[in-house]
């Protein structure tokens, strides 16, 4: 059972940290494909990154590479960075404006805080 | 009654000491002649300029650096406040905060390329810290035209580094101040 209030608070915290650098984010159950919390939610992106993440994970296993750990990043056109955070049974996608968001704060502060918050939400 | 062990021959003792003692300095000439000496001079107003050595100047008051006080919970604001405090209170032209991979969290007056040096620097120090008694959580690195002084602290989220760039390396007291300010800041990250 997941505490969605904690997820909402975590999204709010993320917006506070990244400010106008955060364009959109969703936290979803990767099996159901259902978004549990988010900001400027993007259902199409949820489906897309569920599939991309599954393909990435199976390819890593098939290639005898180490498995996916906490997150991966995609550098995209238009000063955008897509971040997919692996919360185990949940996934989180973020679209970040990399001209407005500090990459160091994203990786060293925002992502670790999200990982802790979602872990707490899953414990409930 | 036999001689006591505490008994000494003063003359022999004095001769022994004189053979090993350093030469006595010449007797100091008083700068201010005694009043009797002046009267003996026949009342002539042979006034030597009474040179009184000037009293030593009081030591300059030691500059006290105010402690950094963080007033915001927002990580970006806290990091910017830390960089601002460093620039205001330390002899430096640039300051930065980085994670232990060398990613810039906040910076002013230094390029991200230079900040990125922190990554390999801290990685290299992992082996150094394995030596018992070696802390290696602060130091200085010559960049070619400037000196980068840095301190590191670790939290459960990883390592963070505060650096300052200037003409010279910061003193140990300044590095203590940087470390204190960094700890205050990352506690809330």
Output mean pLDDT of chain B: 83
Q: What fraction, in percent, of the residue positions of chain B are helical?
A: 25-40%
Overall number of domains of chain A: 1
CATH superfamily of chain A: Dynein light chain 2a, cytoplasmic
SSE layout:
The complex is a heterodimer of chains A (124) and B (189).
Chain A: H1 4-18, E1 22-29, E2 34-39, H2 43-62, E3 71-76, E4 80-87, E5 90-97, H3 103-123
Antiparallel strand pairs in A: 1-2, 1-5, 3-4, 4-5
Helix pairs in contact in A: 1-3
Chain B: H1 10-20, H2 35-40, H3 75-89, E1 94-99, E2 104-108, H4 112-115, H5 118-129, E3 138-142, E4 147-155, E5 158-166, H6 172-186
Antiparallel strand pairs in B: 1-2, 1-5, 3-4, 4-5
What does this structure look like?
The complex is a heterodimer of chains A (124) and B (189). Chain A has helices at 4-18, 43-62, 103-123, and strands at residues 22-29, 34-39, 71-76, 80-87, 90-97. Chain A has 124 residues and is an alpha+beta fold. Chain A has one domain: Beta-Lactamase (2-Layer Sandwich). In chain A, a hairpin with a 2-residue loop joins strand 4 and strand 5 (90-97). In chain A, helix 1 runs antiparallel to helix 3. The model of chain A has no long low-confidence stretch (mean pLDDT 96). Chain B is an alpha+beta fold and 189 residues long. Chain B has a domain at 75-186: Dynein light chain 2a, cytoplasmic (Beta-Lactamase), CATH 3.30.450.30. Chain B is 33% helix and 18% strand. Chain B is built from 6 helices and 5 strands; from the N terminus they run αααββααβββα. In chain B, strands 2-1-5-4-3 form a 5-stranded antiparallel β-sheet. Chain A binds chain B through residues 16-17, 19, 102-105, 107-109, 112, and chain B through 74-76, 79, 98-99, 101, 103-106, 157-158, 160, 189.
């Amino acid at each position: 059972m997941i505490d969605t209030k904690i997820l909402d608070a975590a999204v709010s915290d993320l917006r506070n940290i990244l400010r106008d650098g955060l364009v959109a984010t969703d936290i979803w159950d990767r099996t159901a494909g259902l978004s549990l919390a988010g900001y400027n939610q993007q259902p199409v992106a949820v489906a897309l990154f569920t599939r991309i993440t599954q393909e990435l994970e199976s390819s890593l296993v098939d290639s005898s590479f180490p498995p996916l750990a906490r997150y991966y990043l995609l550098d995209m056109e238009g000063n955008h960075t897509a971040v997919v955070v692996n919360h185990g049974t949940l996934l989180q996608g973020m679209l970040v404006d990399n001209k407005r968001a500090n990459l160091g704060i994203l990786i060293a502060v925002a992502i670790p805080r999200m990982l802790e918050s979602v872990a707490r939400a899953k414990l409930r | 009654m036999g001689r006591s062990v505490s008994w000494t021959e003063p003359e022999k003792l004095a001769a022994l000491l004189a053979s090993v003692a350093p030469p006595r300095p010449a007797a100091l000439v008083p700068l201010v002649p005694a009043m009797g000496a002046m009267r003996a001079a026949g009342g002539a107003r042979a006034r030597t300029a009474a040179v009184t050595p000037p009293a030593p100047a009081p030591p300059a008051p030691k500059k006290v650096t105010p402690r950094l006080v963080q007033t915001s919970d927002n990580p970006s604001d806290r990091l910017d406040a830390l960089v601002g405090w460093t620039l205001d209170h330390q002899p430096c032209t640039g300051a930065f905060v980085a994670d232990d991979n060398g990613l810039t969290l906040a910076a002013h007056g230094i390029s991200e390329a230079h900040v990125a040096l922190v990554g390999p620097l801290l990685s290299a120090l992992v082996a150094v810290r394995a030596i018992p008694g070696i802390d290696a959580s602060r130091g200085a690195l010559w960049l070619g035209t400037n000196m980068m002084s840095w301190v590191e602290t670790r939290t459960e989220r990883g390592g963070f580094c505060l650096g300052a760039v200037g003409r010279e390396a910061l003193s140990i007291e300044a590095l203590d101040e940087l470390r204190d300010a960094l700890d205050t800041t990352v506690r809330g990250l």
